[in-house]
Amino acid sequence: MANPGSGPAAPWPRDESATVAAACAGDRSAARALVRRYERAVFSQIRGVLLPSGRTQIVEDLAQETFLRAFRALPRYTSDGRAKFSTWLLTIATRLALNELRRRPGAISSDTIDAWPADADLARDAEIVGQGVQAAVESLSPPFRAAFLLRELHGFDYADIAEALGIDIGTVKSRLSRARARLREVLGEEGEC
């Protein structure tokens, strides 16, 4: 018997809650749709937290681990329903990246930078962000960089950042303020970031 959501007219791109529910029920096409929808955001967040040491292999491994953990925990997410799926998924990705930095501080250094994959999306990111801004973001410590990327790259609000990083909202505001001040200092700008 064919799976009703597996044909070309599958509702996955339009209805996230139905996609999540179908993936939770074991629908592999729904799970693939979630991976396709969020793989770039997960990869970017992990890479950003690990900068300047975002080795491609480590980033890919952590991205894969993010999805494995998410799919294992999906029943808890669907019954919880407090956060958007993207918030929940990027929380897992961010925590895995921060844990990797804590677990292997000497193994990941700026001497081990791999070139970023040369695909069109990353090339566009590099063009938009610019080398100066990229270097400035790399100069932030991992906790500040994680908060900054969640806010500026992924559009999280303060409450979502607090939840993702396991800190209170006051700490989020402080980290973002200090990150922006550091970026202004590094970039030599008078205006706000």
Describe the protein.
- The protein has 193 residues and is mainly α.
- The chain has a single domain (16-187), classed as Rna Polymerase Sigma Factor, Chain: A (Orthogonal Bundle).
- It has 9 helices and no strands.
- Helix 1 packs across helix 2 and helix 7 packs across helix 9 (169-187).
- The longest helix is centred in the middle third of the chain and has 25 residues, at 56-80.
CATH architecture: Orthogonal Bundle
Order of helices and strands: HHHHHHHHH
How many separate domains?
Answer: 1
CATH class: Mainly Alpha
**Approximately how much helix is present in the residues?**
55-70%
Tally of alpha and pi helices? 9
Short description:
The chain has 193 residues and is mainly alpha-helical. 68% of the residues lie in helices and 0% in strands.
Task: Give the SSE layout.
Blueprint (H helix, E strand, L loop, with lengths): L15 H9 L3 H23 L5 H25 L4 H19 L16 H10 L1 H8 L3 H11 L5 H8 L3 H19 L6
Question: What are the defining features of this structure?
Answer:
193 residues; mainly alpha; disordered N terminus; Rna Polymerase Sigma Factor, Chain: A; single chain
